[in-house]
Write a structure and sequence with these properties.
Structural class of chain A: alpha/beta
Helix content of chain B: 25-40%
Shape of chain B: globular
Number of strands of chain A: 8
Order of helices and strands of chain B: EHEHEHEHEEHEHEHEEHHEEHEEHEHEH
Largest interface: A-B, 37 and 45 residues
Number of helices of chain B: 13
Structural class of chain B: alpha/beta
Oligomer: heterodimer
Shape of chain A: globular
Bound molecules: iron/sulfur cluster
Strand content of chain A: 15-25%
Order of helices and strands of chain A: HHEEHEHHEHEHEHHEEHH
Radius of gyration of chain A: 19 Å
């Protein structure tokens, strides 16, 4: 079945970057993923208008999970890869054609859980890659199981007496590993997310943007939030935008504070340039990262 | 210009990959494949290629799929435990029809086994490692020259049929040094992708050509907005649960190889025309088997050898032809009966007696030792 959307009435600013023939999407009403995706697509439009990037050089790679489904809706070169593997797939794309600009867009379970090894090594290498991690605090698509990011104490379908584990602060981890750009936002700040992506996309090295999202249907409902708005408010109350004094000062605590903001913002040469210091590849002068770094 | 070189199996396979146009090698160290990796780390950049060490084998194979969609001829090399880790995304490569090449040198298992010992226990693993029904192609060389030739053929097969293609060696082959006739890049012909014929917007990345069932391939960066979908997908690459579309997809993944089997299936018969007893062996064990056949011939016994060069798919017609005159067929392999099952299945309609000689050893037996294994199995010639 195809749904015909009358163009004039409902056309949207990022519509040409969407596979509109695939709509409606699978995401639940009130879900935060769409806010992050729209911020990304707006950033792409804006950077394209400024002549910074060209949509044909972007490769949009996702893994498995609710967020992973995004590649199915985005009209860019892309891939929907096995669980946890989008970062590895994306750096393969870059190695295969260094003129391309891969972007990974996936969930916390996918990137920080099963894909944790790839995440930490991509950050360690300062590999030229932008990763946008939508953190909905649980494994949503499979039914609300424990994620490495699930706050301590809260209920999940695999921890019926509350989560006994300390959660993983992925942004702090990636910052500690020396990534070029690390920021954390929540869906309450769509403009900040967009600005952050605009800053990070044309940048060399490893860039990581985490966005705290709400999963009202699985996470929220299971722990007693009756509406998306209640969960939205709960998250807003603990998220705090500020400049941390040190890595230790970045908080990821459900009861106290989840720190938001830009944690790292530097411009060191990434992996591809480091390769070019050792070998004279024909593409070294055409690396988009190098061009951006000169600007 | 063709040149003659004295190379190990691993060096020869690395050289073959360079001649075939290798642009990206991504791997993770493992015995007995690491020296292939090390050799390429030295040589491939001289030819403009990148060598990258993944954080593990899982990363390596996923990156390989990304690299071929970015337009690069790409390869990895591994052994049993590493291949086990690659299993999941071998399925990805099959599902998204990514032309990746894997050199797979078998060692002694299960688990860590005897890491430096040789083995042939991965016949089934090379074919059925990943979940779901899919197809890959597996070649099994017995000499360094054949390893060289088959790596080039593996690139050709992978790109012609868009199917993951494996060269199944072993520890002995990896480290044996022999004379090889080698070529320069450009001197050997390897298939390229079929480029898209429709403009962006009309091109469907998984729409096969009816003649060979292989879809033309658009690379990333060419403006086609290609979605590489690991889920069951239609011709556009869009997820579907439609049973008809699913069935057509899975059937085609198999049929595109079987329809082009004449390009892939290959075998080698020695002294089989008048053989009353046919020995079946593959890889380096077939070298001992051939020496044994020659010894037995000297004693006036009518023995022959049939050796599959491609294991998946097998040259079934070639086997039937070689076995036609023989009253018995003996499969010798370095496991407790994997190729044996296939041979027994293929020859069942002919009513032949098929016997198994398992050789469970981390060392390759010489012809006399192989004969001891025959006796141990109660198989007398
Ligand atoms: S399950 Fe949760 S994360 Fe998934 S689409 Fe629904 S609300 Fe969003």
């Amino acid at each position: 079945m195809t749904i015909q959307v009358p163009k004039t009435a409902l056309s949207h600013r990022v519509e040409d970057l969407l596979r509109t023939e695939r709509l409606p999407h699978v995401w639940c009403p009130g879900c935060g993923i769409g806010i992050v995706l729209q911020a990304f697509l707006r950033a792409v439009k804006d950077l394209e208008a400024k002549g910074v990037i060209n949509r044909n050089q972007l490769v949009f790679v996702t893994g498995i999970g609710c967020t992973g489904r995004a590649s199915g809706y985005v009209r860019l070169d892309g891939a929907h890869t096995p669980h946890g593997r989008p970062i590895a797939y994306a750096y393969g794309v870059k190695l295969g054609n260094p003129k391309l600009v891969p972007v990974v867009f996936s969930g916390d379970g996918d990137l920080a859980g099963i894909g944790g090894n790839h995440l930490l090594h991509a950050a360690r290498r300062n590999f030229d890659l932008l990763v946008i991690m939508v953190n909905n605090l649980n494994y949503a698509l499979t039914g609300g199981q424990l994620a490495p990011t699930t706050p301590r104490g809260v209920y999940s379908t695999t921890t019926p007496k509350g989560n006994p584990e300390r959660p993983l602060d992925a942004a702090r981890l990636v910052a500690a590993l020396g990534a070029n750009y690390v920021a954390r936002w929540s869906i309450h700040y769509p403009v900040h997310i967009e600005e952050s992506i605009k800053k990070a996309l044309p940048r060399r090295g490893f860039r990581f943007i985490e966005v705290l999202s709400i999963c009202p249907e699985i996470f929220g409902r299971h722990i007693g939030f009756r509406t998306p708005a209640e969960l939205y408010e709960r998250l807003r109350k603990i998220s705090k935008v500020r400049k941390p004094k040190s890595l230790e000062d970045i908080k990821y605590d459900w009861d106290e504070e989840i720190t938001l903001g830009v944690f790292v913002d530097k411009d060191e040469p990434g992996y591809m340039e480091s390769l070019c210091e050792r070998y004279n590849y024909s593409w070294c002068d055409e690396l988009p990262e190098k061009r951006w770094a000169r600007k | 210009m063709a040149r003659r070189e004295f190379l190990t199996g691993n060096e020869a396979m690395a050289e073959a990959a360079i001649a075939a146009g290798l642009k990206v090698f991504i791997g993770y160290p493992i015995t007995p494949a690491s020296d292939l990796f090390e050799y390429l780390a030295e040589k491939l950049p001289e030819h403009g290629g990148i060598v990258f060490q993944g954080e593990d084998e899982i990363a390596s194979i996923n990156a390989l799929v990304g690299a071929v969609y970015a337009g690069a001829k790409a390869m990895t090399a591994t052994s049993g435990p590493g291949f086990s880790l690659m299993a999941e995304s071998l399925g990805l490569a099959a599902m998204v029809e990514a032309p990746i090449v894997i050199v797979y040198n078998m060692r002694t298992g299960p688990s860590t086994g005897i890491a430096t010992g040789t083995g042939q226990g991965d016949v089934m693993q090379s074919r059925w490692a990943s979940h779901g029904h899919y197809m890959d192609v597996v070649y099994a060389p017995w000499s360094v020259q054949e390893a060289y030739n088959l790596v080039i053929k593996a690139f050709d097969t992978a790109w012609r049929l868009r199917v993951p293609t494996i060269v199944l060696g072993d520890t002995i082959l990896a480290h044996t040094r022999e004379l090889v006739v080698a070529y320069e890049p450009g001197e050997v012909k390897v298939a390229d992708r079929k480029p898209p014929r429709e403009p962006p917007g009309q091109f469907k990345p998984f729409k096969p050509d009816p003649d060979d069932l292989v879809p033309p391939m658009a690379f990333y960066g060419e403006g086609y907005a290609v979605l590489v979908e690991s889920l069951a997908h239609d011709e556009r690459g869009y997820y579907t649960t439609n049973p008809k579309v699913y069935e057509a997809l899975v059937r085609r993944l198999e049929e595109k190889v079987m329809k082009n089997k004449h390009l892939v299936a290959q075998s080698d018969s020695r002294m089989a025309e008048d053989a009353e007893t046919l020995i079946v062996a593959f890889g380096t064990l077939a070298r001992s088997a051939l020496a044994l056949v020659k010894d037995l011939r000297k004693q006036g016994k009518k023995v022959g050898l049939w050796r599959p060069v491609s294991i998946w798919p097998l040259d079934e017609e070639g086997l039937v032809k070689a076995a036609e005159k023989a009253s018995r067929v003996i499969v010798a392999e370095m496991n407790l009966g994997q190729l044996y099952r296939e041979v027994a299945r293929i020859l069942a309609p002919l009513g032949k007696k098929v016997e198994l000689v398992p050789v469970l050893s981390p060392e390759l037996p010489g012809p006399d030792e192989l004969l001891d294994y025959f006796e141990k199995a109660g198989v007398r010639i």
